[in-house]
Amino acid sequence: MNRKKVLIAGGYGAVGVQIARILHDRHPDLELVLGGRSAGKAAPFPSDRVHTVVVDTQAVDPLIHAGENITLIINAVNDLEDRLLVAAVRRKIPLIDVTRWTEVFQQAIRTIDQEELHAPVILSSGWMAGTASLFAMMLSKSLQNVEVNIHALYSLRDKAGPDSAAFMDRMSIPFHITQSNTSRLVYPMTDPVKIQFPNGYATHCYRLDTPDHVTLPRTHYIDSASFRISFDHKVSTYALAGLVKTGIWKMISGDRFKPFRRKLLYNPGTGSAHHLVILLKGMDAKRNVVERRMTVSDPLGQTHMTALGAAVQAENLLLMMSTDEPMAPGIYYPEHLFDHRMDMDAVTHFFTQYGVQVSYS
Prior knowledge:
By secondary structure, the protein is an alpha/beta fold. 29% of the residues lie in helices and 27% in strands. It is built from 10 helices and 16 strands. The strands form 3 sheets. A 7-stranded parallel sheet has the order 3-2-1-4-5-6-15, sandwiched between helices. A 7-stranded mixed sheet has the order 10-11-12-7-13-14-16. Helix 1 (14-26) crosses helix 9 and helix 4 (127-139) packs across helix 9 (302-321). The N and C termini lie far apart (47 Å).
């Protein structure tokens, strides 16, 4: 039997290993190849369907050692120079990328525009691999002129890989959001909004730049999109907001102070839950104002929610490969999942069967 072969770049990392376990258990005919920069590493769990190879996104050709007949690549590690992206595109291999902050996300789009595409590229780098955007799209169903506000509670005790802290290096850089179909420049850690999360923790959330700002407003009925974050340690949250507001964070934005910046907010622990609150306002068919609220909580934390966000995209793409209508070549965002066979109930079930708690009001 010819097995489908999925390569996970960053396959030894906190997110990559969990993606591998999810897909391994769901697809008994799937072969998994875990890529990392070190040669000879043992697979993170025993299986005759799990292998390891060298994949270095900084190499001229990151896929030179990856082998043949790869069905799909999932990238769970930074690809800052688009080398893995280009290598996959030129080999005509479908790719799911979940690691890009907004600037590198938009860079990927420009890079792909210079290439000839023969396979789908899913840029699913919104918050938690596009999970926040997926649930925001569910909440906006049947409405028009929608305003989406996503709030995340980031646990400083949760498991995390070093790439998860990259957003901290961008706290002094302004970014654009779409508000009432108009682009507006805002700054990180500004415009606080007080939110109570599902665990009862109430705190102020502050603006953060994520690709959700780019992808959600491309949906014709979403006019505004904002993302805010808080940390489950109020002193750290207020300290960071103060450092950004006073300009001190910009003064320490170089490589020399990177260890200090990381020490402030990157001290991963043994695990903690991750919570989202999505607030939405829109118009129904009778032009009445409708407000909706959704909470999404993963007791296994942010790396697990990210792994699920990547795995649900892979699940859909793999299933479509087995049909007469595989996904056409092109650039896709996480929300496009609902345009390609997987409906909202199926997505909700995918997450909840792994312990994610979803509540509407």
